[in-house]
Amino acid sequence: MEKTSDMEINERNEMGGWDNNQMVMPQMTSPEMGMMPNNMMPNVTSPAMGMMPNMPNPVSPAMEKGLEKLVADCALTCQKMIHDIICMKDLDMRKNQLCLLMDCSEICHVTACFMARRSCFTPALAHLCAQVCEACGCECLRFQDPMSQMCGQVCLNCARACRTVR
């Protein structure tokens, strides 16, 4: 594996990244860590992992930002709902809802981050996000309070949007 300077790595990242066949790990030379040779670094193109294809993204940047915002908003809506549930008198009846809200908030946050950096894993993660959002949305809609109803609709809209990611 060839040695690449930090400056060269930064230049490549600014130019649009790396082709998987060109992936090179930098030498780690912090005073605290000493020197870690490249042969000790993980091999990002190992046969077990396979090669990640450089796939063109058919979605426009405006649509990407809209979807990313929708998913991030779902995460925040679920976080607000968690706070509201903790203050409710019928908390014992809402344990499943609370668990699903935590799952939904977390997966939406992670999915939005993957979308923002255009990860090749975004479609798979978006599919999982859709499943969790749908479960959370359906559970929220079982409760008649306005916050649960609103949160349920946000989650179901997010699920629908995540299913469009290819």
TrEMBL record:
Gene3D superfamilies cross-referenced by the UniProt entry: 1.20.1270.360
InterPro entries associated with the record: Csp_YhjQ
Taxonomic lineage: Bacteria, Bacillati, Bacillota, Bacilli, Bacillales
Annotated segments matching region Disordered: 1-24
Record protein name field: Cysteine-rich protein YhjQ
Species in which this protein is naturally found: Scopulibacillus darangshiensis
Domain of life: Bacteria
Basic and acidic residues biased stretches: 1-14
Entry-linked Pfam families: Csp
